[in-house]
Specification:
The structure holds 2 protein chains of 2 kinds. By secondary structure, chain A is α/β, with parallel strands linked by helices. Chain A has helices at residues 48-56, 81-87, 109-119, 125-138, 144-148, 157-169, 187-204, 215-221, 239-244, 249-257, 323-330, 353-360, 380-390, 395-408, 425-437, 455-472, 483-489, 507-512, 517-525, and strands spanning 4-16, 21-33, 37-41, 63-71, 74-75, 92-95, 175-179, 207-212, 224-229, 232-238, 277-288, 297-308, 312-316, 338-343, 346-347, 363-366, 443-447, 475-480, 492-497, 500-506. In chain B, 42% of the residues are buried. Classes of the chains: A alpha/beta, B mainly alpha.
Chain lengths: 532, 299
């Protein structure tokens, strides 16, 4: 069956800006057949989302589009606005990226799902309502009749994404565009959502254009992979061919960097000696009062952790499991409800502020979002020098030391004079790492240090962290939701679930022979199984 | 490792590399000129404020005649080339008096804004940073200030403080504290939750360092924009109090007292009230426009 649903030819998209025009998509051609899943893969800024939005006709007015977008033989760039609108929603469905902002917060779920049918006069109000409940059930929501009467804020992220799938598929479109449909979700939820999309697409013979940054997801779900870089298609072929025998060097570097695709081999973290215990956390509890309820919510519940000098402990869990709170408790940035944190033999609880501050020199933090973690008004060199200045170093010494550190994290000379806003995400994270190392700490807590970065940049940062550990014998508490990343860098792993540690052990043991049922589920949900 | 670096660099510059080089030749200056042509109101406002500032610092540039010299023969003359604003009941040149009054009016407004911004920012900064009962106490006090109409509050204060331009300025400034404190507090509350503040604390910065080096510079922007707007309001408030006779003592020229002085001749010599009044209005409007431009610039 080679019934072509979508044919894109020589698509060019240019964003007109005040100063310069930016060419986002430069001569892209691709086809999607009925019942076929095509994955559009690339890093941020590669033009993959722009391509998808051009097909859906959702680009802003300042984007100039040339080329042909043929949907079932009709060129959408040539038809009028009214005709084009008649295709959207019924012919082409779209699952947007961020489920938290893509639903109207003041309308009921059912009405939002039914809207598509009402706009296109496919059904009367009562029929549409019934169809909406059916669509919600098909998207995998429990109690669809109840959900239809609820508002978006009453649903979790995964449930909202199912609602968006229901909206996209209610009119049985011939083409479904899914723009990073699961990148805001946890792995276990991601798997369920992708399974559901796959089922529905297969059942209806819908063509699926799956836009993703995750090569492992593409490998699992797609028939064909199209790799984009800097607005151009660099490679297009069947999944097996792309994975086994990539022709383009860019594809190869992408494959090498994707951690999930190497989950089967041996643990890659450099061996480290069993160092002296550095951080010992015992029975740590953080409870937050819940308004209107007697029992407080225990975000962190009786957590025990041990980090040894020069080694890396990975703390793994899904969003809301209490990982970040644990990190902040260990660093004493927030006060625990109960439990003890002992750093190098010193109990932090009840320590006078001055002593605690002296100890702070020895444990430092790298945060998740490199875009918000750097002072926006200071130059990079002052950002890195800041901890030294806080501890009374004079300006000259601090700046000299900062220059050394910037060099140490492999930032090009001259970066120091720039502001954070002028740097890329990977460069910013290097600055944050340099800042954390400024005081020569024994322990660095890394809170999702690479989750906001593209895979290739991610691989570079992880390699840098490994190098630094070998040279400086610094211990890491590495917090991540991504098992594949943890496998690359951690010696020991602790798995966190709903505020509790459910399993601890060496990385080799956890990945080869997980004991706890949740750990097993987590491992099974990591994408890329089709390749392994 | 050098290979690594190249890769990182290439990803970083990928965005800029795709820009069309032809468009870059249209220079930055030309772009700035074009964008200001598109906003003539802003250009006129800036020009007007510049002229007013010059008049305040060096009134001789615009008006060569002595503002105090009376010429009874030339009394109550309507505006002409020789006397653009006309003359008053003693034959003094009104244009010269308005120009020479600028310094006093603007100076008072400046003191008023300084009082409002400094005290208000301090209150907002402390309230937003310390939180707790101190925050509640300070902000309730600000609510009390906000509850009383600004002019009424200044009037009450100046009655208590005594007459004179400086005292008028201080009274007007106190009335504007609450607004500045509110804006500053909301900005501090936003900034203090930022990851880079947490990073500063994790880096061992003491609280005053966190406050002075990390919170204040990132919270100050909107307050400064507010300051420009408050300046216009202060010009108006100072003039209003002078009009009521609390400010400059005759015969010293000042915008508000000039308007007040022409009150008795409203029927026969309109220019005595209209000309200085128009000056006040234009100055207030111009500061409003510039402040709006500053806000747009921030966004």
């Amino acid at each position: 069956m080679s019934d072509t649903v979508l044919q894109v030819r020589d698509l060019e998209v240019t964003y007109r800006a005040k100063q310069d025009d930016v060419a986002a998509v430069r001569g892209v051609s691709l086809t999607v057949d009925a019942g076929e899943t095509v994955a559009l893969v690339g890093e941020s800024g590669s033009g993959k989302s722009t391509t998808a939005l051009a097909v859906a006709g959702l680009l802003p007015a300042r984007a100039a589009v040339t080329g042909a977008l043929e949907f079932r033989g009709r060129d959408l760039t040539q038809v009028g606005r009214r005709e084009r609108r008649s295709v959207l929603g019924v012919g082409i469905g779209l699952v947007p990226q961020d489920p938290t902002v893509s639903l109207n917060p003041v309308r009921r779920i059912g009405d939002q799902v039914a809207e598509v049918l009402l706009i296109h006069r496919r059904a009367r109000r009562s029929q549409a309502r019934a169809a909406a409940v059916e669509a919600l059930a098909a998207a995998g929501l429990d109690d669809p009749a109840i959900r239809a009467r609820q508002y978006p804020h009453e649903l979790s992220g995964g449930m909202r994404q199912r609602v968006l799938i229901a909206i996209a598929l209610i009119a049985s479109p011939a083409l479904l565009i899914a723009d990073e449909p699961t990148s805001a979700l946890d792995v276990t939820v991601q798997r369920q959502i992708l399974d559901r999309i796959g089922d529905l697409v297969q059942r209806n013979g819908t063509g699926l254009l799956l836009v993703t940054h995750d090569l492992a997801v593409a490998a699992d779900r797609a028939d064909r992979i199209v790799v984009m870089s800097q607005g151009r298609i660099v490679e297009d072929g069947p999944v097996e061919q792309i994975l086994r025998d990539p022709a383009h060097p860019y594809t190869r570097s992408l494959l090498d960097a994707a951690p999930a695709l190497h989950l089967s081999g041996p643990v890659t973290a450099a061996p480290a000696p069993a160092g002296r215990p550095l951080l010992a956390v015992r029975g740590l509890v953080k409870a937050f009062p819940v308004p209107g309820r007697k029992a407080a919510f225990r975000a962190v519940d009786a957590v025990d952790l041990d980090v040894a000098a020069g080694r890396t402990l990975g703390l793994v869990g899904e969003s809301g499991s209490g990982k970040s709170t644990t990190a902040r408790l260990a660093l004493r940035l927030i006060d625990p409800t109960a439990g003890s944190v002992v750093f190098d033999g010193v109990e932090l609880a009840g320590l006078p502020a001055a002593r605690l501050r002296e100890l702070r020199r020895r444990f430092q933090l790298v945060q998740q979002n490199p875009y918000a973690a750097l002072h926006p008004k200071l130059s990079v060199i002052d950002i890195v020098a800041e901890p030294l200045r806080s501890f009374g170093e004079d300006r000259r010494t601090a700046r000299d030391r900062a220059t050394e550190l910037l060099d140490r994290v492999q930032l090009p000379a001259g970066t120091g004079a720039r502001r954070a806003a002028e740097l890329s995400g990977g460069q910013r994270q290097r600055v944050a790492i340099a800042r954390a190392l400024a005081l020569q700490p024994d322990l660095v807590v890394l809170d999702e240090p690479v989750s906001a970065l593209d895979v290739r940049v991610q691989a570079h940062i992880l390699a840098l962290l490994g190098d630094l550990q070998r040279d400086l014998a610094v211990g890491y508490l590495f917090i991540s939701h991504d098992l594949a990343v943890v496998r690359q860098i951690c010696h020991d792993v602790a798995v966190m679930y709903r505020g509790r540690i459910v399993e601890t052990g060496s990385a080799g043991k956890i990945f080869a022979d997980p004991e706890h049922e949740y750990t097993r589920r987590l491992l099974a949900a990591v994408p890329g199984t089709a390749v392994r | 490792m050098t290979l690594d670096l190249e890769l990182v660099d290439r990803t970083a510059t990928a965005g800029t590399a795709t820009r069309a080089p032809a468009a870059r030749s249209t220079g930055r200056h030309w772009g700035a000129a074009r964008s200001s042509l598109r906003r003539p109101g802003l250009v006129l406002s800036v020009l007007w404020l510049a002229a007013v500032l010059i008049a305040a610092v060096a009134p001789g540039v615009f008006a060569s005649t002595d503002p105090l010299r009376a010429a009874p023969r030339l009394k109550l003359q309507p505006p002409s080339w020789e006397h653009p604003f006309g003359t008053d009941q003693l034959g003094r040149d009104l244009f010269s008096r308005t120009v020479h009054g600028t310094g006093l009016s603007l100076g008072s407004a400046l003191i008023a804004v300084a009082v409002g911004i400094v005290v208000g920012s301090l209150v907002g900064l402390v309230a937003g940073f310390v939180r707790g009962p101190l925050d509640s106490g300070l902000m309730r006090a600000m609510d009390v200030l906000l509850a009383i109409p600004a002019l009424l509050l200044s009037l009450a204060l100046v009655t208590a403080l005594g007459f004179g331009t400086v005292k008028v300025a201080i009274a007007v400034g106190i009335a504007s504290i609450a607004a500045c404190a509110r804006v500053m507090r909301s900005e501090v509350l936003r900034v203090r939750e930022s990851p880079y503040i947490e990073a500063a604390r994790a880096g061992g910065a003491r609280w005053f360092r966190v406050l002075g080096r990390h919170v204040l510079p990132n919270a100050a922007g909107p307050v400064l924009v507010l300051a420009v707007m408050e300046f216009g309001t202060a010009v108006l408030a100072v003039s209003a109090l002078s009009f009521l006779g609390y400010g400059a003592v005759p015969p010293t020229p000042e915008w508000g007292s000039l308007v007040s002085g022409g009150r008795d001749f409203l029927g026969s010599a309109w220019w005595l009230t209209v000309m200085p009044g128009l000056t006040i209005v234009l100055t207030v409007l111009a500061t409003g426009r510039v402040s709006q431009g500053g806000r747009e610039g921030r966004e």
